[in-house]
Amino acid sequence: MEAEKLPNFWGEIPEEEYYESQGVKNKKELFETPQGTLFTQSWLPLDKKPKGLVCLTHGYGSDSGWTFQLTTIAVAQMGYAAYAADMPAHGRSYGLPGYIPDFDSAAASLLHFYKSVRDRNPGLPHFLFGESMGGAMTLLMHFQDPKGWDGIILSAPLISIGSSMVVPWHTLMGFKIISPLGLGKWQISTSRNLVTNAFRDPVKAKLILKNPRLYAAPTRVKTRLEIERVVAWLNQNLKNVSVPFLVLHGKDDTLTDPLASKRLYEVAVSRDKTLRLYEGAYHSLLQGELEETVAQPILNS
């Protein structure tokens, strides 16, 4: 059976058997929020109580399963309880695939779930993790709940748009004209080859693209406008980030701008903050790099 017809990247091994071989237990649940129903998952250490809680948000087009769970599994193997949800308009959560007309509402929906997880695990240190667009969502959740988390971790966060994702101003003006006319759900291709720019390892890129829940269609008009709005807002408010944070970014990332991560580090009022820039690394630090040269050291640290 070909990989694209399988529900998981590892092949035909039953889920329970695979997770047990990794030393974790997995649970899937639907969670109701005021905005809609989220598909959620948890990965817990198999034979010990968790020492902390990490709530992880994937990037654009992805979901909480497939290869994103390589990160959640690694977190659980390190002794933490890992929780993730499919972002609204992604995977098995509510919404038209790829259509996010309001990032603040989407972030609030995710935060509703993560706060419920936090409340069910009193006394445990609790952290947020966000990758790419999930990094933007994580920063929005921080601003919505500024004192609710012990720290955040950002991997190639969408704070500013990278060179391969820039859209000409006249195209954006066109989007602004047609979106209020009921055309915000239109799918219009605006970017170059994102696969080449996102994943340095072509073998891993091929596997990632076999995700049966991947949103690989052109970006929807309103979603693109929201991306532009949110990155502008974030750049105006980076100085107000007050939570302890670790931000990771590949220097050769052209999807999200590594200089924006550097700017976050420089201007945020957080007293406890760390920036790690990786020479020669692309956008997908934890899933798409060669020979685990970046991912494994990050997870081990």
TrEMBL record:
- Pfam families the UniProt entry points to: Hydrolase_4
Q: Tell me where in this chain the Serine aminopeptidase S33 domain is found.
A: 49-286
Q: Which domain of life is it from?
A: Eukaryota
Question: Which interval of the chain is the signal sequence?
Answer: none
Annotated protein name in UniProt: Serine aminopeptidase S33 domain-containing protein
Q: Please spell out the taxonomic lineage of the organism that makes this protein.
A: Eukaryota, Viridiplantae, Streptophyta, Embryophyta, Marchantiophyta
